[in-house]
Write a structure and sequence with these properties.
CATH class: Mainly Beta
Radius of gyration: 18 Å
Number of strands: 23
Structural class: mainly beta
Strand order of the largest sheet: 10-11-12-13-17
Number of domains: 1
CATH architecture: 6 Propeller
Helix content: under 10%
Largest sheet: 5 strands, mixed
Bound molecules: calcium ion
CATH superfamily: TolB, C-terminal domain
Distance between the termini: 18 Å
Length: about 280
């Protein structure tokens, strides 16, 4: 018994939780998820949705780019903080992203409010996900084309504050969220063509670090079909982890390329886990 308890403490010291899948909820969006403990916010490439935690649709915004000063056509993973929804947004054309910014929406109405512009000198060329880390006055961003860095902006001023090199680098990061001082990054690093599971990575959210040791702490082997993992978040009221996954569509180099046998559409699902 003593050995068992020490073993569990050892796991906790390493900061790697164990995960138990509780439920799966189908949603409309294919990009990201955030929760304030009351609702699940879901982003599609060009829409925002709000669901209750049983999966009932409460609100949607199908014209999320209205009122923006520069062109946009793609939303990535999202984060919610203090009544506002933060989304990584860009204009994607001919394989290149432009007009990268963090767009801020009212979390009640899903209406657009303002934007925090990206600093091109940071080296970031795409935004796949954002996470609000209020304890560090930070907004962290990932770049789907290059998992070697996470980029950090000041939450209070919106200014670019630096980047952290990840060693090793997750490939194709699609989501980022904060839990107990760690960044959790979902990576579309498993090939659905060969039924490989995508991964969950963990790295300490240290604003002073130039480099962080990244660890692939699990593979999402329980997904109903290997596909494309997308955004994630942690529920502040229950501690649960919520992860969005897409299955059914064959994706080649980021482009939809037809359906797998047995599918008449791509399915987007939230997987909800208890952490121990
Ligand atoms: Ca994505
Ligand atoms: Ca995949």
């Amino acid at each position: 018994m003593v050995v068992l308890v020490l073993g569990l403490i050892g796991i906790c010291d390493a900061g790697e939780p164990a995960f138990e899948l509780l439920r799966v909820i189908e949603v409309q969006g294919r990009q990201g998820v955030a929760t304030d403990g009351n609702a699940y916010f879901v982003s599609g490439s060009r829409a925002l949705y709000m669901y209750d935690k049983q999966g009932q649709l409460l609100a949607s915004n199908e014209t999320p780019f209205d009122g923006m000063e520069t062109e946009a056509n793609h939303i990535g993973d999202i984060s919610v903080h203090d009544g506002e929804l933060y989304a990584g947004i860009e204009h994607f054309l001919d394989g290149k992203a432009a007009n990268i910014r963090i767009a801020v929406f009212d979390a009640k109405t899903l209406e657009y409010r303002r934007a925090i512009d990206w600093n091109p000198a940071s080296g970031q060329v795409e935004v796949s996900a954002v996470a609000i880390d209020s304890a560090n006055d930070a907004i962290w961003m990932t770049d789907w084309t290059n998992g070697a860095y996470v980029f950090r902006y000041s939450l209070s001023t919106g200014h670019y504050a630096g980047k952290m090199h990840l060693d090793p680098a997750p490939s194709a990061p699609q989501g980022v969220a904060i839990r107990e001082g760690y960044l959790y990054i979902t990576a579309d690093d498993g090939n659905a063509e060969t039924d490989e599971a995508d991964g969950l990575w963990q790295v300490r959210a240290d604003p002073d670090a130039r480099e962080g040791k990244a660890v692939r702490i699990r593979a999402f082997a329980e997904f109903r079909r290997a596909g494309e993992v997308e955004g994630l978040d942690f529920d502040p009221t229950t501690g649960e982890m919520v992860v969005l996954n897409n299955r059914g569509e064959r994706i080649v180099l980021g482009m939809p390329s037809g359906l797998y046998p047995g599918y008449d559409r791509e399915i987007h699902e939230l997987y909800v886990y208890r952490l121990r």
